[in-house]
Amino acid sequence: xxxxxxxxxxxxxxxxxxxxxxxxxxxxxxxxxxxxxxxxxxxxxxxxxxxxxxxxxxxxxxxxxxxxxxxxxxxxxxxxxxxxxxxxxxxxxxxxxxxxxxxxxxxxxxxxxxxxxxxxxxxxxxxxxxxxxxxxxxxxxxxxxxxxxxxxxxxxxxxxxxxxxxxxxxxxxxxxxxxxxxxxxxxxxxxxxxxxxxxxxxxxxxxxxxxxxxxxxxxxxxxxxxxxxxxxxxxxxxxxxxxx
Length: 244
What we know:
By secondary structure, the protein is α+β, with helices and mostly antiparallel strands. Helix content is 29%, strand content 35%. The protein is built from 8 helices and 13 strands. The chain has helices at residues 2-9, 29-37, 72-77, 79-84, 95-105, 116-121, 173-183, 216-228; strands at residues 15-22, 26-27, 41-49, 53-56, 67-70, 88-91, 110-114, 125-128, 138-145, 159-167, 187-195, 203-210, 229-239. A 5-stranded mixed beta sheet has the order 6-5-7-4-8. It has a 4-stranded antiparallel beta sheet with strand order 2-1-9-3. Strands 11-12-10-13 form a 4-stranded antiparallel beta sheet, sandwiched between helices. Strand 11 and strand 12 form a beta hairpin. Helix 7 runs antiparallel to helix 8. The protein is elongated, with a radius of gyration of 21 Å. The two termini are 24 Å apart.
């Protein structure tokens, strides 16, 4: 995730798409931290259904497989299936790399957890489909770029924006920040806290909100928040879209 994000910061690519949250396994902490500390902006959020499959080399079966490889999020989303089949699990940088390794090893005792498209790409067989615990398994992906894309000043339905900020470590500081947001008529869709790596027991806050930030209310809110937040960043603005 860090390599991909940094490549976009350096101009080696125009856009990087990274997962921020899974409906079953929760936040992707490493990406959340990049959102706070990095320089890129989010210009789209994409919700995609996730289907995990057990994939292995030709000739492998559930009986021959002893160990499964995949990304930590995929392993977490398939934890019940892994436990019921008494598989050992090994964390890998991502699902595609795990599948590539399984293909190269050509060992019927190992398998990857990945998509059916990945199985086809690396000439692997799908041993079992839909092994994730939740059938309502959705991952949110953020599209990052170096350019901040603000909406038109005329508000319309389905507009959202994201802020990250820190407040002083004192009573009522967070409540005051949230009151400023509420007083300008913006509804919070999500509020999360994450520890700051450089300051022990200090936290930053990530907020997703409904509405158009590029309005008078949005401008006034940012001014008021800036006066009381140690750090404040408008991460990006986007419009809701449905992806299947």
